[in-house]
Amino acid sequence: MVEISYKNFNLQQICDSGQCFRMNRTQENTYQLIAQERLLKMEQKEESIVFFCSEKEWEEVWRDYFDLDTDYEAIIKTIDHKDDYLQRAAKYGSGIRILHQDLWEMIISFIISQQNNIKRIRKCIQTICERFGEKKTAEDGEEYFTFPTPQTLARVSEEELRQCNLGYRSRYIKKTAEQVQTYEKWNQFEVFHYQEAKKELMKFCGVGEKVSECICLFALQKKQAFPVDTHIRQVLQRHYPEGFPFERYKKNAGVIQQYIFYYDLTKKENKDIGQNR
DNA sequence: CCTCAGGACAACC
DNA sequence: GGTTGTCCTGAG
Asked: Would you state the pLDDT for residue A268?
């Protein structure tokens, strides 16, 4: 068990920021995450977070995964003081961190994400893990499924993928799994710069510009990647009709994007709750 | 019944 | 190089 006190680190905000589809809230203040072939349980306390794993595992696996060596407060401080909207958004989602997730898993996850909503994306991924992943048992006896490997998904038929409700994306996934098998530069993604990584990722079937940017941000730690979906596009039009100041935030634009996304998303949900009452 | 949710791709012009 | 139709599914 490891307990850390860290200012810009909130599990609920990370959960709801739409970057990780295998992290869930299990109870009021407890969460679990399946990543790195492991199941990690966590508890959010007022001033700290408890991770139910050994000190060794925390240092070797999760420290990097949760991007602990990046100072998010410093990024927030670079925000234009006159930019009221961004100030509010960053303050609201100041506990968000950009997770260092697995490349292969992100490629498939964000291919699934196109024309899809978060709830359904989670369900689709859960299904392919249960059907094609490896069943494991955690130390406390809880069973979970790992994300299927490229080898496995390359052998799965398109029809079997369709039965996971992946729709027309089934063909993309099948083909990308096959492409990855024979892709020679796989190990080079760690050294590719942003533009090159983005371009290379778009060679995979079903990966366009938006999906590629998501993969760059959430798997390759390219914090300058700024995925623009229809949702973000609307926000930019509404709040930045003169254009968004990309130059100012260039190397951390992706972090800013996450603040905007999370702020706008949960703000809308709050509105809905208000109307229902 | 139709529309839309965090797009990509091929087939055009 | 820009535009348009098509591709699944489930919720509203």
From this structure: 60
* Residue A24 contacts residue A31 (beta carbons within 8 Å): yes
**CATH 3.30.310.260 domain position(s) in chain A:** 2-92
How many residues are recorded in chain A? 277
- CA dist A165 → A56, A125, A150, A161, A206 (Å): 39, 10, 19, 7, 16
Residue A205: CB less than 7 A from any atom in strand B: yes
Question: What separation in angstroms does the CA of A54 have from each of A1, A4, A18, A130, A173?
Answer: 5, 13, 28, 27, 36
Kindly state which CATH superfamily the domain A103-218 is placed in: Hypothetical protein; domain 2 (1.10.340.30)
- In this complex, the nucleotide whose C1' atom is nearest to the CA atom of residue A218 is B6
In chain A, which ranges are E strands?
2-4, 23-25, 30-35, 38-44, 49-51, 135-137, 143-145
**pLDDT computed for residue A272 by the predictor:** 40
Q: Report CA A158 to chain centroid distance, whole Å.
A: 25
Tell me the Ramachandran region of residue A190: left when phi exceeds 0, alpha when psi lies from -120 to 50, beta otherwise: alpha
Evaluate whether the domain defined by A2-92 bears CATH number 3.40.1280.10.
no
Specify the pTM.
0.94
- Residue A117, nucleotide of least CA–C1' distance: B5
Please give the average pLDDT of every successive group of 10 residues along chain A, which has 277 residues.
92 93 94 96 95 96 96 97 95 96 95 90 93 95 96 93 93 94 92 94 93 95 92 87 90 94 76 35
